[in-house]
Model the fold of this input.
Amino acid sequence: MITSSGIDPVAVLTRMYAAEAAYLAAGGPGEASFDPLAPSFAPDVVLHQADALPYGGTWRGHAGVEGFFLAMSAAWESFEMVGQEFLATGPTTVVLTQVRARARATGRELAFPILQTIRIEGGRIAEVWPFYWDTAAIAAACTATPPGTEVRRRQ
Done:
């Protein structure tokens, strides 16, 4: 769907996802330049992440998004988007992404969905709200438990 301003949100997001894949393939945060990704985001972009996540908080501007990628890289050894479905398109687009990831701290592998609402203005991503199915499971997978502090469950 092309918006009334002549912007195709799916094309905007498809370009960003391709640039993100190239960025990660080139070494990602701390290794590759963020420059190819920057044009996908408005200069004052706001990315909201659930506070319970290891990379939680509000990330602002290009420096914030780059910092977010660095924090994600610290949490995840691998983070693969194995399927995406555009559920609604327009100035606010809704994308359902299936993820398969391996936590860096524990080596645990998880598969989970992320539902994102993405506001697009002027052909760029202006605001992102990702919703995770189970932030507690993600946080637990990304947190190494010191030896001797494991909680034993009743059988």
Residues 124 and 138 are 29 Å apart (CA to CA). The mean pLDDT is 88.
